[in-house]
């Protein structure tokens, strides 16, 4: 009897060791997101939800778009084009459909600033990585957030190479601006109203990274929809260059109220207007996206083309 028990125990141990060999513990990867929070996931991510556009364009730049199972399909920016046919629509950028997200059986949810308030609820569905930049430290946060996201997919080397290319593109614009003594204003049009943005704003790429000079001795409050400005205010600032972004157009609304704003008589008196230096930027690219690897490249490319003689 003792001999039987000993043989059975030996057999059980052998089976246990064999099972351990056949079923290894899954490796995990930990990174830091834009909240400064550590995010830990299984190293073999297969199903990813993107709640905004820049994180999707980063995944696409890294060749990972086929992992995306749910995304904001409605009103997709032109540069994104279309998603794969089986991608589920998460709906609103600010308030994604939580039932849809729960049913997507995802390994990871990538949230943006627009959906950040929902992160506590999202974390009940899957690990959440917040993807957003720091307005006051645009380039540093851009590099960090894209590199950290890439690490989750073992694509850090590829992301670093793309970032180096983007930096070279930005340097070419900075070199041009270093020879100029011109002040630039970023102007947002929104349903017939106007607002301006400064260097430490969501459009910090223009000032901090590309080297455009902000308006001297004029402090612009960093607000999500900018600091309100009048036609008289624009003339008082009298910038050498104005970059215009039409928010109404970007979100797919009727922008007829914005059509003639820059044709106002007072705006026509500015140096920017008189020197043909008022430039309308691609509204969707700049307002609903940006900070992804692909979108940032396209933004810099658009500005660089405008700077050509």
From TrEMBL:
Database matches in Pfam families: Peripla_BP_2
Keywords (A to Z) from UniProt: Coiled coil, Signal, Transport
SUPFAM superfamilies: Helical backbone' metal receptor
Keyword match Cell membrane: no
Domain of life: Bacteria
Subcellular location: Cell envelope
Designated name of the protein: ABC transporter substrate-binding protein
């Amino acid at each position: 009897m003792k001999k039987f028990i000993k043989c059975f125990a030996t057999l059980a141990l052998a089976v246990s060791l064999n099972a351990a060999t056949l079923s290894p513990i899954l490796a995990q990867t930990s990174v830091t997101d834009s909240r400064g929070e550590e995010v830990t996931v299984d190293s073999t991510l297969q199903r990813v939800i993107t709640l905004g556009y820049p994180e999707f364009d980063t995944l696409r730049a890294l060749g990972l778009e086929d992992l995306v199972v749910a995304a904001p399909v409605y009103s997709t920016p032109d540069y994104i084009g279309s998603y794969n046919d089986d991608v589920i629509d998460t709906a609103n950028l600010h308030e994604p459909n939580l039932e849809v997200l729960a049913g997507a059986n995802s390994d990871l949810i990538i949230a943006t600033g627009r959906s950040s308030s929902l992160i506590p609820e999202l974390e009940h569905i899957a690990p959440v990585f917040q993807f957003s930049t720091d307005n006051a430290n645009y380039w540093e946060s851009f590099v960090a957030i894209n590199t950290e996201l890439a690490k989750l997919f073992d694509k850090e080397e590829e992301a670093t190479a793309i970032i180096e290319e983007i930096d070279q593109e930005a340097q070419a614009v900075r070199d041009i601006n270093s020879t100029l003594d011109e002040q630039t204003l970023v102007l947002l049009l929104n349903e017939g109203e106007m607002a301006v943005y400064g260097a430490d704003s969501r459009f910090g790429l223009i000032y901090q990274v590309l080297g455009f000079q902000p308006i001297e001795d004029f402090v612009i409050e960093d607000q999500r929809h900018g600091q309100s400005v009048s036609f008289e205010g624009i003339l008082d600032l009298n910038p050498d260059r104005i970059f215009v972004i039409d928010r109404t157009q970007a979100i797919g609304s009727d922008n007829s109220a914005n059509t003639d704003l820059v044709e106002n008589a007072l705006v026509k008196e500015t140096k920017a207007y008189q020197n043909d230096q008022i430039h309308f930027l691609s509204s969707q690219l700049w307002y609903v996206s940006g900070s992804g690897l692909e979108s940032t490249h396209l933004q810099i490319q658009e500005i660089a083309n405008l700077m050509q003689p």
